[in-house]
């Protein structure tokens, strides 16, 4: 599947179950405009439809990347600004769709990842960055703040003081510094980046998909509720996963080294 939506290209490899959403406005460093936000939502909806039509699970992982080799995304499109940070006041935003998408979503950051672009990456489950990438919240220089939860995300991943420093200074920090703070999962040398990301995504895509999805949900529950509610969720889902074909398949492969398991998401 290869869909050219507005400002976003969606590719889906049926064999691996890996989807790629490419932010495709390289001349504007993939700045997020209304068309791109709609494109991301529509792309995710199309992928969700594939899942609904499949027996078991079709989509194993989604990668979001930027076209052009210079930026993941340089933030909200400044030309569309009208005094508010886009996405800040919408009841359900494109970033919620990313966070709530059932399969894991990986931000592949190669180049500038700024403002609303960093907030998009933060809504993903994982952030992988090339060494030369630069991340930051430049909104302060426009007299505003990251309006789609950026400070909140960073405060939880790193600490509140790191988050406010990033947003108050508007500094572009290195991928290494972002990783040290816990904001980025892994940094790789530029010339190894493609290969490393592909390996990471394939590893996750090959795991039993219902367990992967349950783990994603559990991570979200951990952030959004207290530990008691989280443990209750884990216990309930654990019991459900024990009943799946994938669990039986995994157990069989554990017992028999020569058996190659095939996980279907059932
Ligand atoms: N919105 C709209 N257009 C943007 C943009 C944004 N957020 N970021 C970059 N662009 C456009 C530039 O206007 C330029 O367009 P042009 O070629 O028509 O002049 C093009 O992308 C290339 O950017 P340029 O500034 O020439 O590249 P650079 O390498 O000199 O600098 C950045 C790169 C990222 C440092 C710089 O573009 C920048 O600071 N962008 C704004 C970042 C920002 O404030 N984002 C948060 C918005 S809330």
Structure characterization notes:
The protein is α/β, with parallel strands linked by helices and 266 residues long. The chain has two domains: 2-205, 2-enoyl-CoA Hydratase, Chain A, domain 1 (Alpha-Beta Complex); 209-255, Lyase 2-enoyl-coa Hydratase, Chain  A, domain 2 (Orthogonal Bundle), CATH 1.10.12. It is 44% helix and 17% strand. The protein contains ten helices and eleven strands. The chain has helices at residues 34-53, 94-100, 116-123, 150-157, 160-169, 175-181, 193-205, 209-224, 227-242, 245-255, and strands spanning 2-5, 8-13, 18-23, 61-66, 71-73, 105-109, 112-114, 126-130, 134-136, 173-174, 186-188. Strands 1-2-3-4-6-8-11 form a seven-stranded mixed β-sheet, with helices on both faces. The model has no long low-confidence stretch (mean pLDDT 94). Coenzyme A is lined by residues 28-29, 31, 74-79, 112, 114-116, 138-139, 142. This is Enoyl-CoA hydratase/isomerase. GO terms for molecular function: isomerase activity; lyase activity. Belongs to the enoyl-CoA hydratase/isomerase family. It comes from Halococcus hamelinensis 100A6.
